[in-house]
Write a structure and sequence with these properties.
The structure holds two protein chains of two kinds. Chain A is mostly helical. Chain A contains 20 helices and two strands. A two-stranded antiparallel ribbon of chain A has the order 1-2. In chain A, a hairpin with a 5-residue loop joins strand 1 and strand 2. In chain A, helix 1 packs antiparallel against helix 3 and helix 15 packs parallel to helix 17. Chain B has two domains: 186 residues, Rossmann fold, CATH 3.40.50.300; 110 residues, Helicase, Ruva Protein, domain 3. Chain B is built from 16 helices and 13 strands. In chain B, the strands form five sheets. Chain B has a five-stranded parallel sheet with strand order 3-6-9-1-10. A two-stranded parallel ribbon of chain B has the order 2-11. A two-stranded antiparallel ribbon of chain B has the order 4-5. In chain B, a hairpin with a 5-residue loop joins strand 4 and strand 5. Classes of the chains: A mainly alpha, B alpha/beta.
Chain lengths: 483, 337
């Protein structure tokens, strides 16, 4: 079935409107970009001459024409046009439905009625523009490049610097460099780079002065000559003040023992660390071995021995000998302690005492407790061996840690807080917290209670519950009701 | 009979039936229109509202306006499926021989009022499933067709949850529309008082019979729908699914399960009835949008966040419709493409 003439006319008319509006839209965009290029051309008016004045308006016109042509020739989809007409004239999708259904083989008798109805309605429509004008962003800014182009067209030509940047390098500098000795050049290269640009002139001035050896007189192209007569020329670097400032840091460099041992393996055990320190101390043993270092080492060994080794007695003996001035005895005691320490390390490597790190620590602590619990640090109050972290297994009353940060991290989290309820019957209310707590519950609590009550009644009726418990169960459900 | 005359007859019948119901029911014009829409679309309606708003009265009045058989079942927890469908009973003939005879249940009626449907157990509720979908029930291995047209109107009370069994999703999906009956406005309430507390008796005339309803249902299916309008309906339904690529943020955040294809069918069929009732020969996008809420509000299942936030299904569907409209081509400017 052909579309009635009126519907086709309407569609063609709206399609033409769409084309015109598109042409306007794209024409404005093209004009903008053309004007922008034209303004750029006019900037170089001096170089291009009168040709620029002719090219610039041509570029604007070319952009506008190109945009208009593109917009006008862009494909228009008939269904879109029909939909636009439906919306604009309040036809409730009649035109779009007619265009789609009129030619379908499976059309129903109602489609014929629809076509007739639509044609009748379309014929009564008044002719008006229904596609609104859409000004692009470029269209709003179009006056700017046009105005700029006009100003540039009537303004005197701008002479832009077209040459290259002058060569400020003095012609004599290469010869001067050649005059320098190799030693001087090496010295210059080995000097640290100057980080502050403002300091650069004075440094250069100083260098040149030292190199020239004359202290006065300048050659052509010598930049240091600029500063010859300024106050900067009289300044000299004060190395003494630098040494004073750096004195504290230099002192620190002398105290090797206070520096962290970056070479040591951070993951190695304390026993290994002490063992290495002892070996390093003993390997460089000399008559003037420092009693202080020996005492520190023994003290550390004694502390470690208290925690889990059996060499604390030897270490204590060594310290006593050291206090009595008997260095030999102290060294012997330390050697014994080291042997025990090595034995313990080897025992651990053999796999007999192979355990997890945390478990190992607990074991050590447990043995400590078993010996009488000398330790009084916080870790010494933890569990003994075989006592877990689960509630009720440990002796510690300390909390096991903070609650997880996940709860209430989000406003949608729901928490439950308990609250003792006073009243006729003692009870315990649970209150929702969080955002959900402020809203009516959607959980089918009452529905579930009702279902359970029904099940309870059924169970009692079928005598599935011993008779003695009937009252107790009913009282329980009655208590739920009273809430 | 010309097509114009057929459509005119439909509009007249629709208006006449609505006028008869409105003789008794004050206000609720939208509810009445939607009930009639569902009836002509061949679907079933679930009416939800607090007691005393006239849900049952509306359905009884509608039944009075039609020359159709009417049954009412008051759903209770002890109601059994056989109480609805019927059962085989032993009868003795004149020769003294005994045999089974099927005793029809109240479901064998044109219009079935399932009052407070959520008070019966799921087992009993599911007795309606086959009848609602297939128009037939199976008893003792034999399928028995229900009278046509078969129209189930169920009511439920949303606030008394104790002793109720919320309808399962499969059951809900079989209702074309879920309508929320709201409190009347004050002038409507005054009219209700005047109408119900005086001695005046209102009689409802029968304006339509079964064959008329069936022929009008046939007419409904002839209404053409443009592809972009159909696309809007399918996009709305797909946008209720949180896993769909084009779903709006509200769906992804608050919806657990979206509407089924029955939802799209309900949208389009309802829109066809609405178009014809307005004297139009085609479906428009406005018809689809107008019926999105009754057709989809019971088919969108909120997730925990949606429940916790107290998200209203109607608000959610409204946002989904807006998003779907933006997705489909109808929302875009034609000449910028």
């Amino acid at each position: 079935m052909d579309h009635p003439q009126t519907i086709e006319v309407l569609v063609r008319r709206v399609a033409r409107e769409v084309r015109v509006r598109r042409a306007e839209h794209w024409g404005l965009r093209g004009a903008f970009w053309g004007a922008l290029v034209a303004a750029a051309v006019l900037v170089f008016k001096a170089a291009l001459g009168l040709a620029a004045l002719a090219v610039a308006p041509a570029l604007v016109a070319l952009g506008a024409i190109a945009g208009t042509t593109y917009g006008f020739t862009k494909r228009v989809i008939v269904q879109d046009v029909a939909r636009l007409a439906d919306r604009a004239f309040g036809l409730a999708d009649r035109v779009a439905t007619v265009l789609e259904w009129a030619d379908r083989p499976d059309r129903t008798p109602l489609v014929d009625a629809l076509v007739a109805d639509t044609a009748a309605r379309v014929s009564t429509l008044e002719s008006r523009w229904i596609v609104r004008r859409a000004i692009p962003l470029e269209g709003r800014w179009l006056p700017a490049p046009l105005l700029a182009g006009l100003v540039l067209a009537f303004a005197p030509a701008m002479h832009l610097p077209l040459g290259t940047i002058g060569d400020f390098t003095p012609s004599t500098e290469p010869e001067q460099r050649e005059e320098r000795t190799t030693t001087e050049l090496m010295e210059e290269r080995s000097r640290p780079l100057q980080t502050t640009p403002l300091k650069r002139p004075s440094v250069e001035e100083r260098d040149f002065a030292q190199k020239s050896g004359t202290g006065s007189g300048s050659t052509a192209g010598d930049l240091s000559a600029i500063f010859k007569d300024t106050a900067l020329s009289s300044q000299r670097p004060d190395f003494n003040s630098f040494l004073k400032k750096g004195d504290e840091r230099l002192k620190l460099l002398e105290q090797v023992d206070r520096l962290p041992d970056l070479q040591s393996d951070f993951t190695s055990s304390q026993y290994k660390m002490v063992y290495r320190k002892s070996k390093s101390l003993l390997s460089g043993l000399s008559p003037d071995i420092s009693p202080r270092k020996l005492r520190e080492l023994l003290d550390e060994m004694e502390r470690l021995g208290r925690k889990g080794g059996n060499w604390s007695g030897d270490a204590t003996e060594g310290m006593e000998a050291l206090e009595g001035g008997q260095t030999d005895r102290a060294l012997e005691a330390m050697q014994r302690a080291l042997d025990k320490m090595r034995a313990m390390e080897e025992a651990q490597r053999s796999g007999k005492g192979l355990r997890g790190g945390r478990e190992n620590e607990r074991g050590v602590r447990g043995r400590d407790h078993a010996r009488g619990g000398e330790g009084n640090g916080p870790e010494d109050q933890d569990f003994g061996e075989g006592e877990g972290l689960l509630p009720g297994k440990g002796r510690s009353t300390m909390p096991k840690g903070d609650a997880t940060a996940r709860l209430r991290a989000s406003p949608y989290d729901v928490g439950v807080e308990g609250e003792s309820r006073r009243g006729k019957k003692e009870g315990y209310d649970t209150n929702l917290t969080g955002r959900a707590g402020q809203m009516p519950s959607r959980l089918m609590y009452l529905g579930v209670v009702g279902q359970y009550r029904k099940m309870m009644e059924d169970a009692i009726t079928r005598e599935q519950v011993p008779r003695d418990y009937h009252d107790q169960i009913r009282n329980y459900f009655q208590a739920l009701d009273e809430r | 009979m010309t097509q114009d005359a057929r459509v005119e007859a439909f509009v007249t019948a629709f208006e006449a039936l609505r006028a008869e119901v409105e003789k008794v029911i004050v206000g609720h014009r939208e509810i009445i229109t939607h009930v009639l829409t569902a009836m002509f679309a061949g679907g079933h309606v679930l009416l939800e509202g607090v007691p005393g708003l006239g849900k049952t009265l509306l359905i009884k009045t509608l039944a009075e306006g039609l020359e159709l058989s009417f049954s009412r079942i008051q759903f209770t927890p002890d109601l059994m499926p056989a109480d609805i469908i019927g059962t085989n009973i032993i009868v003795e003939d004149v020769d003294g021989r005994k045999h089974f005879q099927f005793q029809q249940g109240p479901i064998f009626a044109h219009i079935l009022l399932a009052d407070e449907i959520n008070r019966a157990t799921p087992k009993t509720q599911s007795a309606l499933l086959e009848g609602m979908q297939e128009g037939a029930v199976t008893v003792g291995g034999a399928s028995r067709p229900l009278p046509a047209p078969f129209f189930v109107l169920a009511t439920q009370n949303p606030i008394e949850m104790e002793g109720t069994y919320p309808l399962p999703e499969a059951q809900l999906d079989r209702f074309l529309f879920k309508l929320r009956v709201r409190y009347p406005a004050i002038d409507e309430l005054n009219a209700i008082i005047d109408r119900t507390t005086q001695s005046r008796h209102v009689t409802v005339s029968r304006v339509m019979n079964g064959p008329t309803v069936l022929s009008l249902r046939e007419l409904i299916r002839e209404v053409p729908i443009a592809s972009h309008v159909r696309d809007l309906a399918s996009t709305i339904v797909m946008a209720t699914h949180p896993s769909w690529a084009g779903s709006p943020e509200v769906s992804r955040r608050f919806v657990r399960y979206g509407a089924s294809p029955r939802g799209a069918q309900a949208l389009v069929l309802g829109a066809k009835v609405r178009a014809l009732a307005e004297g139009r020969y085609n479906v428009s996008a406005e018809d689809i949008k107008a019926l999105a809420m009754p057709a989809l509000r019971h088919r969108v299942i909120l997730n925990f966040e949606g429940e916790a936030e107290g998200v209203d299904a109607d608000t959610l569907i409204g946002q989904i419709v807006e998003a779907a409209e933006a997705i489909t081509a109808s929302g875009r400017e034609v000449f910028l493409r």
